[in-house]
User: What shape does this take?
Amino acid sequence: MSWCVAYAVGCGTGVWLQLLVTRSHGNPAPPSRQPFSRHIGIIRLMKATDGRRGRRASKPAPPSSHEYLERIIKKAQRKTGFPIRRSFVQTGTLQSPRPGPLAAFVKSKDPRALDLFLLAVTAATNEPYSVTFPAETWARALTIKHFSVVSRAWSRLEDRKLIKRQRAGNRTRITLLKEDGSGKPYTHPFKGTKSEHYGQLPLEYWLDNHFAELDLPAKAMLLILATWRGELSLPAERVPTWYGISADSCERGMATLLKHGIIDKSKDWAPSLHAPGGWTATNVYTLLGAFARPVRQPKILTLHATGVPF
Assistant: This one.
């Protein structure tokens, strides 16, 4: 005759399952009286916990970049994207445009500081538009290996009058300043006394890893296109004057955006007495997919085929 006793003991989230099996003749003795060495086999299945609800036996690995970005976006309560004023890419007037602060990032080849600034804009959603995270959070979110790189990047952003820093215990509080580099306090571009032209980058910029895959020229051209709704005629030779970015960087950036399927490129033909055949062509670029989402803002002025707004 044989008998089998199985019982489970639950403690919090940890579970032990013991299976006691023996074989004997006649009426078996209670399990507690059977010699373990010969008659009882024990199988234990235990979860990797210390038995306390919600706690782990060992410290888990640091979250991935994607997980950090998801946490930052969730805390900021962003739903679709984050705004960027056109004055970040271009200042001055429509008749006399001048390069905005973006040009300094491209000239100094500073993609880390650019993404750090854009992530701060993503994270700071309420007045006074401040955010306080340890350097490790910023670094891991942006796949920066050395945390000291974050501090140096904040310093450069402060020099460009795009943020201000304050100590908050053992951390640094980052407060946004207006994107035009004037040093004025930051306000949401649609909540001020006068509505301002601005664009929007979708959260896919972070969550689909575009920030890591696009090079600096591509990021610069993406920001320029994002601040102009709809199609944009952009002669490469005018980009240095209008945006402070070389024609070569413009063309390389647009090629990268085309490769990643972020924009579409077409031709716009205009009559010309100086061009062969009487027509001249200008490249027209259009944002696609998530990057083409409409932005609630004042009416954007139409562009001539030459790219000059009127």
About this structure: Residues 1-26, 32-52, 297-310 have pLDDT under 50 and may be disordered.
